[in-house]
Design brief:
The chain has 17 helices and 24 strands. The longest helix has 17 residues.
Length: about 550
C-alpha cells in the first residue's frame, strides 16, 4: 500500500506489485525498467532490429507494425517489447505470474526518438531514453528494483545473477580546465580554491592539479550529453557562483569607426532610388532555377553550375541571370495588375573561371504591361537613365551589343559602356521567350546592371544648386529623321544649338507609319529653356527655336508643322 500511495502522489497509476516497483524506480532515480513473465518467454532473450513488417501488440492493446530500423527485445519466436518504449501484452505481468525477468537497459537516444515518433508512441520511458541516460544508471536501477521487490512481495527470492552486457566506453570523461581562461570568460577574479570547491559540490573529481590547470573528471550522470568541453565547466562555475556576482564593467575595446563597406552602402542607395524614387517593388528569389527555366529563357546550359544535392527539380542550377526568375514573378502578377515595375538585387554565378565560378552582383529592373503592343523600351530606358543619374554614375557611351542572351530582343536593345567595359543593358524581352513564360499577351522592358562593376567606378557625390530665380519656357519640337540616327545623336544636336539656354530635353513620342517615309521616323521632344540671369522673352525663345530647327535640318531632318 505504501508503494501505491507514493506513486499516486506523483500522478502515476497502480497495477500490481512488480509493475509498481518498476514505475517507482523510474520516478526515483530516472531509470526505466521492464519486467517480463518468464513463463511466456520462449528460449533466450535478445535485443535485435525488427523484421520489416513484423507486428507486436503492446500494453495499450494496439497492434504496431515495425520496420527494420526499430529496436526490439525478443525471444526465439517473436518480439516481446519495443525497446525503450513499451512492452508487449503477451509477456506482461499478470496475477498468475510466478517468475519474472527484469530488464534494465541503456538505448541509443536517436533510435528511441525516431521509433517513438514514427509509431506515435510517447511514453515516460521513451521520453527519458531519448534524452541520453547515464549508462551506469542501468545497474543501479535493477539493484534498487530487486531491493523493493523483496520488500514488497513476501516470499520472493532472487533465483539468478545480474547479467551485465556492456558495449559502451566506461572510461570517465576528463577535461583540462585553464584557470586564467575561466576567469577571462566569466569576467571575474575567481580563485583556484573556490573553483575546486564549486566543482566538488557538483560531484566533479579533481584528478590532477597544477599552477594554472585542473584535470577534472566528469561524473557519469553529467557526461552523456551535458559536460564535454572546457566551456561547459566554466559555465557551471559561473552558474554556481552566481551571475549577479560578476562585476559590470565596460568592455576594454579600442574606439574606432568600422571600416566602411562601400558596396553595401551603394546597394542601400540603389534600393532607396528604385523603391522610393522610381516606384519599383523589390522582389527576392532563390539563387537557383531548373532546366525548365533554362530552356524557356533559351540560356546556354554549359555556362551553368549544376548542384549535386538540389532541393527540387526547379532548383537544380545556379542562376547566371536574374531575368528568368523575374519573368516567373511577372507571370504571377500579370493577372492582378495592368502594369507594374519590379526589381531584384542579387548574385549570378557564371561557370567560366578556372577554379571557382565568377560571382557578380546584378540589379535587374523590369517594367511589365498588359498588351503585347504596349511600348516598354522607352519607359525602361528612361527609368534606367533616371536611376543612373540619381545614383551619381559617370557618363557612359551607348551602342548595340553584338552578342547577347537570346531573351534580349536584338532590335530593341542598347548597351552602356564605361571605356571598353560593358556596365549595363537596356532591352525589351524577346517575344519568343515571353511566350515560353506564358507572357505572350504582355510587353516587358528590362535593364540589367552589373552592380559589382558599377560600384568600382567613381560614383559622383550629389551636387545641389539653388532653385531657379527665373521662370522656364517649354517648347515642343517634332522632327522626321532617318532611323539610323540615334536618339542620343539627335539630343546632342538640339543641345548644341543653344547650350546656354537649353537646360533639359525629353523625348515623349516616336512614330512610324502613315505619312512617314520608309526608313525614317518622327520624334517629338519637349525642350526646356531657362536663364540664370534674366527672364526670357518671346524673342529669346524664337531665336533658340530657329537655331534648333536649323541644326536639325542640317543633320538631315524635316521639321513637322512648318
Amino acid at each position: 500500500e505504501w508503494l501505491a500511495q507514493k506513486l499516486r502522489t506523483v500522478g502515476r497509476g497502480t497495477y500490481n506489485n512488480i509493475v509498481d516497483v518498476t514505475n517507482y524506480v523510474a520516478e526515483e532515480i530516472g531509470q526505466p525498467l521492464h519486467a517480463f513473465d518468464i513463463n511466456n518467454i520462449s528460449g533466450k532473450i535478445i535485443i535485435r532490429t525488427a523484421e520489416e513488417g513484423e507486428k507486436i501488440i503492446t500494453f495499450d492493446k494496439k497492434e504496431q507494425k515495425l520496420s527494420r530500423d526499430m529496436l526490439v527485445i525478443a525471444d526465439d519466436k517473436h518480439p516481446l517489447a519495443i525497446a525503450g518504449i513499451m512492452g508487449g501484452i503477451d509477456s506482461g505481468i499478470t496475477d498468475k505470474t510466478t517468475a519474472i525477468l527484469i530488464e534494465s537497459a541503456n538505448f541509443d537516444a536517436a533510435s528511441i526518438r525516431k521509433t517513438s515518433m514514427r509509431l506515435g508512441l510517447r511514453t515516460d520511458s521513451s521520453q527519458r531514453f531519448e534524452k541520453s541516460l547515464d549508462p551506469n544508471l542501468a545497474e543501479t536501477g535493477i539493484k534498487r528494483a530487486i531491493e523493493l521487490i523483496l520488500k514488497a512481495c513476501k516470499g520472493a527470492r532472487v533465483s539468478g545473477p545480474v547479467i551485465d552486457i556492456k558495449n559502451f566506453e566506461t572510461k570517465p570523461v576528463k577535461i583540462n580546465l585553464n584557470i586564467k581562461k575561466a576567469q577571462s570568460v566569466i569576467g571575474a577574479e575567481i580563485k583556484k580554491p573556490e573553483i575546486i570547491k564549486i566543482l566538488k559540490k557538483l560531484e566533479f573529481k579533481i584528478a590532477k592539479t597544477s599552477n594554472n590547470t585542473l584535470l577534472v573528471e566528469v561524473p557519469s550522470f553529467r557526461a552523456s550529453k551535458d559536460i564535454g568541453i572546457e566551456e561547459d565547466l566554466i559555465e557551471e562555475i559561473a552558474r554556481m557562483r552566481g551571475y549577479d556576482k560578476i562585476p559590470a564593467v565596460l568592455p576594454e575595446l579600442p574606439t574606432r569607426l568600422p571600416i566602411e563597406n562601400k558596396e553595401r552602402k551603394l546597394k542601400h542607395e540603389a534600393r532607396r532610388i528604385l523603391s522610393f524614387g522610381l516606384g519599383f517593388t523589390e522582389i527576392q528569389s532563390y539563387s537557383f532555377y531548373g532546366l525548365n527555366e533554362i530552356k524557356k529563357a533559351e540560356l546556354p546550359e554549359n555556362l551553368h553550375l549544376q548542384l549535386e544535392n538540389y532541393l527540387s527539380s526547379d532548383q537544380t542550377h545556379l542562376r547566371i541571370s536574374l531575368v528568368p526568375n523575374m519573368l516567373k514573378a511577372a507571370k504571377q502578377n500579370i493577372y492582378s495588375f495592368e502594369e507594374f515595375k519590379i526589381y531584384e538585387i542579387g548574385r549570378v554565378y557564371l561557370n567560366i573561371a578556372d577554379y571557382f565560378p565568377l560571382e557578380e552582383k546584378f540589379i535587374c529592373g523590369m517594367s511589365v504591361k498588359k498588351g503585347a503592343e504596349k511600348e516598354t523600351f522607352r519607359d525602361i530606358k528612361g527609368l534606367f537613365e533616371a536611376f543612373m543619374k540619381a545614383f551619381g554614375a559617370p557618363e557612359f557611351t551607348t551602342k548595340k551589343a553584338k552578342e547577347n542572351y537570346f531573351y534580349i530582343n536584338p532590335s530593341r536593345q542598347l548597351s552602356y559602356f564605361y571605356g571598353n567595359e560593358e556596365i549595363a543593358k537596356v532591352f525589351e524581352v524577346n517575344p519568343i521567350v515571353l511566350k515560353n513564360f506564358d507572357l505572350d499577351e504582355a510587353s516587358v522592358g528590362c535593364f540589367e546592371i552589373n552592380f559589382t562593376k558599377l560600384a568600382r567606378l567613381n560614383v559622383q557625390d550629389k551636387k545641389y544648386k539653388p532653385i531657379p530665380k527665373f521662370p522656364e519656357i517649354k517648347i515642343d519640337v517634332s522632327v522626321i529623321m532617318p532611323e539610323q540616327k540615334s536618339v542620343e545623336e539627335i539630343t546632342n544636336i538640339i543641345k548644341n544649338a543653344d547650350p546656354e539656354l537649353i537646360v533639359d530635353i525629353e523625348l515623349f513620342d516616336v512614330f512610324k507609319g502613315k505619312n512617314i517615309e520608309s526608313g525614317k521616323r518622327a520624334l517629338a521632344f519637349k525642350i526646356t529653356l531657362r536663364s540664370d540671369e534674366r527672364t526670357l522673352t518671346l524673342e529669346d525663345m524664337n531665336k533658340t527655336q530657329k537655331r534648333i530647327f536649323d541644326a536639325l535640318c542640317q543633320a538631315g531632318g524635316i521639321i513637322r508643322g512648318l
